[in-house]
Write a structure and sequence with these properties.
single chain, mainly beta, twelve-stranded antiparallel β-sheet, two-stranded antiparallel sheet, 5 helices, globular
Length: about 250
């Protein structure tokens, strides 16, 4: 039903230890605590997972007036794959793809005439392999989109673009809430909107909305992200005790 994750330190390719602890086991909801460690058993990721049975949920349901504002461009998914949709086209120029390798697993389709706002990313996505999105894919989907900062970079003079250099956008905190079950067999397409409300002092918030092709809300996610130079991620990892000074 919901996931709350804190990313404490950089992870690396290779073995990791997952520790799962029951915090509360209940009839309607259960809560478990998960840690991911690497190196000398240092925790890299910690999270709480709240579980419930979405198939048997019952209770009051009421309509709301919520909708995406501004509304996204309409899409004909049967034309999208062939490249003949009038509003959407495949995105093949993701920056630094050799660094963000996970992005290569999906095909991105973005508005032909640009995003509605620089602070918004609208996309239709599908797995490049042809496999289908399931509930287990939603954590990946909620973190898979062109970076909003790059939309701003495109409008800068060439001299300023160079000054920005290569950037990394580490997620410090991620929340994910499931709203609707996908079919057990999965779906080919998902729509995603990413919205930044404030980008300031090297930090930004992101709201991620995931919908199916019928426009039903599948998941909501919120991110707290930093904006730093890519060298912060590519520097050698040191497994040494940290010294942190906190000024109150």
């Amino acid at each position: 039903m919901a996931l709350n994750v804190n990313f404490l330190r950089r992870t690396a390719e290779g073995p990791a230890i997952f520790v799962v602890q029951d915090v509360k086991l209940g009839r309607q909801t259960s809560v478990i605590h998960i840690t991911v460690s690497q190196g000398s058993s240092r925790e890299k990721v910690v999270g709480y997972l709240t579980r419930s049975n979405l198939e048997t949920e019952s209770g009051i349901s009421l309509p709301t007036a919520w909708t995406l504002v501004p509304p996204p461009y309409p899409a004909n998914l049967s034309l999208l794959m062939g490249g003949s949709d009038k509003q959407w086209e495949r995105y093949d120029s993701a920056p630094f793809l050799e660094f963000r390798k996970a992005s290569a697993r999906v095909d991105f389709y973005l508005p032909r005439n640009g995003q509605l706002e620089k602070s918004i990313i609208d996309e239709w996505i599908r797995f490049a392999s042809g496999e289908l999105f399931t509930m287990g894919s939603l954590g990946y989907v909620a973190d898979m989109f062109p970076q909003i900062i790059e939309s701003y970079r495109e409008t800068l003079p060439s001299t300023e673009k160079h000054q920005w250099g290569r950037l990394w956008y580490p997620t410090i905190l991620l929340n994910l809430e499931m709203k609707k079950l996908l079919p057990p067999e999965g779906v080919q397409w998902l729509f995603v909107r990413v919205l930044a409300k404030q980008i300031k002092n090297g930090r930004m918030d992101l709201e991620v909305v995931v919908m199916d092709e019928g426009g039903d809300l599948i998941a909501l996610s919120q991110h707290v992200c930093m904006i730093v130079g890519i060298e912060r991620n590519t520097a050698e990892r040191r497994d040494v005790p940290e010294k942190i000074a906190v000024k109150l």
